[in-house]
TrEMBL record, chains A, B:
UniProt keyword annotations, A-Z: DNA-binding, Transcription, Transcription regulation
Single GO molecular function: carbohydrate binding
Phylogenetic classification of the source organism: Bacteria, Pseudomonadati, Pseudomonadota, Alphaproteobacteria, Hyphomicrobiales
UniProt xrefs under Gene3D superfamilies: 3.40.50.1360, Winged helix-like DNA-binding domain superfamily/Winged helix DNA-binding domain
Organism domain of life: Bacteria
Chain ranges of the Sugar-binding domain: 63-317
Organism this protein belongs to: Devosia pacifica
InterPro entries recorded: NagB/RpiA_transferase-like, SorC_transcr_regulators, Sugar-bd_dom_put, WH-like_DNA-bd_sf
Protein name as catalogued: DNA-binding transcriptional regulator
One Pfam assignment: Sugar-bind
Family note: Belongs to the SorC transcriptional regulatory family.
DNA sequence: CCAACCTGTGAGTATTTGCCCATCCTCGTA
DNA sequence: TACGAGGATGGGCAAATACTCACAGGTTGG
C-alpha cells in the first residue's frame, strides 16, 4: 500500500512535469492535460503547485532585475510606500546621475494627475538636478510649496532652493518661503513663522500630498556648512551631539531622532509632513549620506526613497 | 531565425521591469500597467518582450523521478561521468527544447568556477540553442576554444559555429579556428594545421577541461550535408561505409569507430579531447540521432550526455 | 461500523492574457 | 509643407487561466 509520502512525491513529480511542459516547453494547460491524461483543472493545479513548491525558478537577467530586487527588499525592510532604485555607475562620481531622472519621473507622475495636489519640495543639489530633468508641462491646478526658506545667509536667494524652478517649468502655483533657512534665534523664527503669509504657507506644507526632500550629510563637507547656513562650530557641535544627517535643515541622530537644541532650535523650515497621511520621498544616494538615509528610514522620517543600487545595498547590509 | 531588431536600451529596461513585476513579483499585467503608468496592452507587450529577448529564464529545479531513474541507468550502462535527462514533450518537433536550457545550466556550472578552465565547444544547432540560454556573466579567467572551423563552404562565417556567441555572453577569452570545417584535401588540412596560431589553438583544445559537442546524424538530412560541408555523394559514401553519426565532423560507424578515408581524411576539426582526463559532454536528442549517440556512448567517444527521456529510453531499449 | 475528515476532482464562473486592428505619432523624403 | 512608411498605442474580443464550490473516494478514530 502506498504511504502518503510516496503519493506526495509522485504528485510533485507530476507537478514538475506539468511545470516543465508549461514554462519550458510552452504548452497550454489544455495540452498538458491531454498529454498527462488528466483534466485541464488538474493540470492547472499541478502547474500552480510547481510554482508554489518552488520547483520552477524564474530569474531576470538584466541589470534592472537587481534593482527591482533590492527595491523590494528595502520596501519590506523599512515598510516604505515607495522605493525606486536606479542602477549604479561605479565609475561616475556624480551624486545625481540617474537619480535626477528617476526623481523627475516620480515628480512627473504626480504632476500628471488631473486632481489638484499639493506638492512639497525641500532643497539641495540632488533635488535641483531632479527638477532640471522635469519635462515642461502645464499644471496650473497643482500647488508647489517649499519646505525651506529661500534666503541665503548673505541675503541673496539661496542657490539650491528650487521651488522657483519647479513652478517655472510646470506652470503651477508656487509657494516659496521668504525666510532664511536657519533663523538667527528661536525667537526670530517664531516671529517669522507667525507672519500671516508664512503661516499660510506652513499650513499648506503640512497638508502636502507628496513631499520630495534631499538628505544632507553632516560630515566635514556637510552642505549646510558649505553653503554657509551653519558655522563650523555649529557643525562640530551637531556632530558631537550625534547628528548623522539632515532633512531640510533638521538635523537628526543615528536613531532618526531630531537633535534637541543647537541649530534645530532655529531651523526655519516647515516640519516634515506627516508620513501617516502623505508620501514623503527622500532622493539621495552615496556613501556619505548612508548613515543619514538609514536613520531617516529607521525612524520613518520618510516613507519613500529614491536611491541607487550601491546605496540600497549599503542600507540592507547592516543590521 | 528572426532577424535581430535593434531595440532601444530604454525599452529593454522597461521590459525587464515589467518582466520582473510579472514573473518575480507575481503582479498581473493590469497592476504592472498601473505601476508603470502605461496601458495594459503595453504592459503585455513589455512582458512578452522580456521573454522573447531572453531576459527571463525559467528553470525546473526538481529531480523528476523518471528522469533520474533513466539517468542513473544510462550512467551505469555506459560508464558515464555526467548524465542529465530532461523531460520529453512528445508533441513538440523542436530538436532543442529543454535540452538548450539544461545544456546552458551545465555550461554555467563550469563558468562559475573561480579557477581558470579551458572549455571546448563544438558546433551545431543544439549547441547554439544552449548558448543562447546562457546567462551573461563575467568570466575573463576562462578560455573558450572551438573544436571546429568557423568558415562555411561559401567563405562566410559558419552560422552554427557558436564560439563567438559564448565569448560574447560570458566575456571570456575565445579561441576560434579560422578554418573551413572540412578541408579540400588531407594536404590542405596538414598545411592549415601547421600554422602556428592554429597549432596553438589545437593544443589548447587538447587540454580542455570540459568539452561540449553536438551529435550529427548522417541520414538524408544530415546537418553536414544540409549546411553544405559535404556533398551528397560524400554523404552517400559515408553512409555506405557504415557511418551513423558525427562529432565535429568526424564521422563514425555503429561501433563508434571513426570511418577511415572519405571526408574524415579532410576534417579540419580538432580531435575530440581525451575522455580519460577530461569531460566530453554530448548534447543531443531525437530519433534520428539515436544510432549516432549510441555509437558514441558505446565507444566512449564522449563520457557525458545531456538528452531527453525519449532518447534515453531508446538508448537503454536495445541490446 | 460509522461519522468526521482529508485529498483530489470536475463543473461552472470570474479574471487575466494574447492577439487583431484601427488609429496616432514620428520621422525621413519629395 | 505635404505625404507615406513604420512603429507604438489602446480598444475590443476570444482564448487561456485562476478561483470557488460541491462532491467522490479513501482514511482515521471512536
Amino acid at each position: 500500500m502506498a504511504t502518503r509520502q510516496e503519493i506526495s512525491a509522485n504528485r510533485l513529480d507530476d507537478a514538475a512535469r506539468a511545470g516543465w511542459l508549461y514554462y519550458v516547453a510552452g504548452n497550454t494547460q489544455d495540452q498538458i492535460a491531454a498529454k498527462l491524461g488528466i483534466s485541464r483543472q488538474s493540470a492547472q493545479r499541478l502547474v500552480s503547485l510547481s510554482v508554489s513548491e518552488g520547483l520552477i525558478k524564474m530569474r531576470l537577467d538584466h541589470p534592472i532585475g537587481r534593482c527591482m530586487d533590492l527595491g523590494a527588499r528595502l520596501k519590506s525592510r523599512f515598510s516604505l510606500d515607495l522605493v525606486e532604485i536606479v542602477p549604479s555607475d561605479p565609475e561616475s562620481p556624480s551624486t545625481t546621475i540617474g537619480l535626477a531622472e528617476a526623481g523627475a519621473a516620480e515628480i512627473e507622475r504626480w504632476l500628471k494627475l488631473d486632481e489638484p495636489r499639493i506638492i512639497a519640495i525641500g532643497t539641495g543639489r540632488t533635488l535641483k538636478a531632479a527638477i532640471e530633468q522635469l519635462t515642461p508641462m502645464e499644471c496650473p491646478h497643482h500647488k508647489v510649496v517649499s519646505l525651506t526658506g529661500n534666503i541665503a545667509p548673505d541675503g541673496s536667494a539661496a542657490f539650491y532652493n528650487v521651488i522657483f524652478n519647479v513652478a517655472d517649468v510646470v506652470k503651477s502655483r508656487s509657494f516659496p518661503m521668504p525666510l532664511p533657512v536657519i533663523a538667527s534665534s528661536a525667537q526670530e523664527r517664531e516671529m517669522l513663522h507667525s507672519q500671516p503669509m508664512i503661516r499660510e504657507t506652513l499650513e499648506l506644507a503640512a497638508r502636502a500630498d507628496v513631499t520630495f526632500v534631499g538628505v544632507g550629510d553632516l560630515g566635514p563637507q556637510a552642505p549646510l556648512y558649505e553653503d554657509g547656513f551653519i558655522t563650523e562650530a555649529e557643525l562640530k557641535a551637531l556632530q558631537k551631539a550625534g547628528a548623522v544627517g539632515e532633512l531640510c535643515g533638521w538635523a537628526f541622530n543615528a536613531d532618526g531622532r531630531l537633535i534637541e537644541g543647537f541649530t534645530n532650535d532655529r531651523v526655519a523650515s516647515a516640519p516634515i509632513p506627516s508620513r501617516e497621511t502623505s508620501l514623503v520621498v527622500a532622493i539621495a544616494k552615496g556613501e556619505k549620506k548612508l548613515p543619514g538615509i538609514r536613520a531617516a528610514l529607521n525612524r520613518r522620517l520618510v516613507n519613500g526613497l529614491i536611491t541607487d543600487e550601491l546605496t540600497a545595498e549599503g542600507l540592507l547590509a547592516t543590521e
